[in-house]
Hints:
Chain A is an alpha/beta fold.
Amino acid sequence: MSEAATIARPIDAADLIADMGARARIASGLLARTPTAAKAEALRKAAAAIRDAAPAILAANATDVAQAQTNGLSSAMIDRLTLNPDRIEGMAAGLEAVAGLDDPVGRIIDRAERPNGLVLQRVRVPLGVIGIIYESRPNVTADAGALSLMSGNACILRGGSEAAASNRAIHAALVAGVTAAGLSADAIQLVPTTDRAAVGAMLTAEGLIDIIVPRGGKSLVARVQAEARVPVLAHLDGIVHLYVDRAADPAKALPLVVNAKMRRTGVCGATETLLIDRSYQNPRPIIDALIKAGCEVRGDAAARAINPLVMTADAADWDTEYLDSIVSVAIVDGVDAALAHIAAHSSHHTDAIITEDQATADRFLAEVDSAIVMHNASTQFADGGEFGLGAEIGISTGRLHARGPVALEGLTTYKWLVRGSGQVRP
Amino acid sequence: MSEAATIARPIDAADLIADMGARARIASGLLARTPTAAKAEALRKAAAAIRDAAPAILAANATDVAQAQTNGLSSAMIDRLTLNPDRIEGMAAGLEAVAGLDDPVGRIIDRAERPNGLVLQRVRVPLGVIGIIYESRPNVTADAGALSLMSGNACILRGGSEAAASNRAIHAALVAGVTAAGLSADAIQLVPTTDRAAVGAMLTAEGLIDIIVPRGGKSLVARVQAEARVPVLAHLDGIVHLYVDRAADPAKALPLVVNAKMRRTGVCGATETLLIDRSYQNPRPIIDALIKAGCEVRGDAAARAINPLVMTADAADWDTEYLDSIVSVAIVDGVDAALAHIAAHSSHHTDAIITEDQATADRFLAEVDSAIVMHNASTQFADGGEFGLGAEIGISTGRLHARGPVALEGLTTYKWLVRGSGQVRP
């Protein structure tokens, strides 16, 4: 190819991601050795920069929102897109909260001395370069950037096209903070195009991007999982079960069920299927309370016999994540049947039991194969913040690397350090 | 489709793997709750069954070897394929060794009590179903089956077609031991066909197989990584570097270099590139010792100036895993240049430094981004057995989930257990 032809070739998505990835790799090498205090300072300076830039961020967001209204986006999507001074302060406070988290990098997982005198340590190190693909919420730019940086990783952010101006404004403030602290501007990069080909290039950027984290609805996550050649840390459905055992304390069961289903119906920890032991003495108040709270209850024949307002559940209901004020209710023959139902229908996110029988609880905790298994607690606690992680980049329903809420530690790996005094292997 | 048509349809590879996977999933649920002692007993009974079946295994192996000779396989491949009484005893002893390892299942990774009284634990659980795809070494059937079982996982084994009869005989002994201990025969399954389509079906068996472990040469691993939709635990090249710093003790450096390169040249921990600090006082004895040991030395101009027997290294040499009595040698300007060379050429498997300067050693250990980084030790120690893991299913050069030597713990994941007393989320 002649030089002229090279120059004339348009920059395509793969070239763009290759360039960003190469710069991210260099930045990640520096970040991996950046002390905790410097990373925290960068995030605090970024928080200050977000606050200083609030007028510019709000102006950029107003153009995104106006465009979204012109394009006829749904009111729910426009709500997710819209920023206000409270949401901007929330982003800044979130950056400061991440700055205060324990730094996993350098933590020694274990240590062993071998009979030949070799001393082995496994030490936590950052994953490297994280690609984050998200949709309309602009606050993800700040949240994901902060978690990546504090865990010593460089990141490449690709937000939704409808939030492009907002994301650019937030990203500019992040970079201002990061560089003010003396770190590389390439530590947090934002894909500068809303061309969908850039997503494809990220998903196939093996060797450039070490892990992809999709944050968004089912269709985004499904596309990412279908196309990615880079490992993906993702959660799909949260088909969450709550089982009320015969030995449940009714005074606990009723508020737990109502909270687990109705506190917030749109979160992945919201209960979607209620299983009630046929031997539980007083199921009616639970059903009545759900209906009174505005929940549509769909049940099997036995559930419908409890209250005539219960509607008929069809086969699809047992495999549906409603994310709405709807619950499916099955009456089951004790913990065996509950375990069988959960094994058949759970999405392995979160499942819970209510019982005062410790042996039954222990069995449920041992046998349910989900990322989070709870006893006498609301499934709405399935959240990195509630787990004390300080934040979360997602809840993994995969089995490898990290499971359940993922925060800083889940964005690290480890290496083996071997210290000797001249040992040769016999 | 009519019933007759259903019956007439041939069983294809996807159906076969779907059936094996479904049975493996049930077995994995049982194995996850099988006590350590029962798993160990199964492996000890399998070891006894292997010893009892030695004549049958040797007879089956003889047919494989005869077929391989007829097919004109290389002598190296026939050597890997061939069993003898010592190798069979080695397999049996290996099963007993795995039976004696610490069981990671049920181990509590960490525990926290939240201000609201919720008690959280992360507890190790098996991955589920492991698919192992390997080549001509029949002992992998026993090794991989044992590591999977002891870590509470069901496995689906797919060995090389050239070892089919040997693998069937070994597998039969394993199943005899497993069932004699009262465990499910589906815990260790062997794909009964050597049809290559079965490999493709395993690689795309998402939801049926939780992780694929390829064990074999580069072409196998490359095919698996290219085609797999199931996560893969794999290592590709071991382009291993050994850096002799200016502050290296010559009395340690010479035997370390010779051992790291020449002890066994075909293992992934064998040194492939030797980097010597230009300020190291006495490089000639090292080069001479390698040549005397039968190693072909290929070097840059400065290395060739040390000894005229050094041949010319070309650009490809710096990226080559020889697995042979060949080494590339570069003379570098201190630890900075060594780190830059390693960053550019390492396969992130194992890299090592020889120095008496603690600050230089610490910097090398911190900055080299490889699964294993060593100081004053032979790179030939890169091995799960030498690391005290008791065995290894492979050495991962990937960054996610497990890195470096992988044994029982690397075949587990964790779940979160949350114990409450009726807490609802505000």
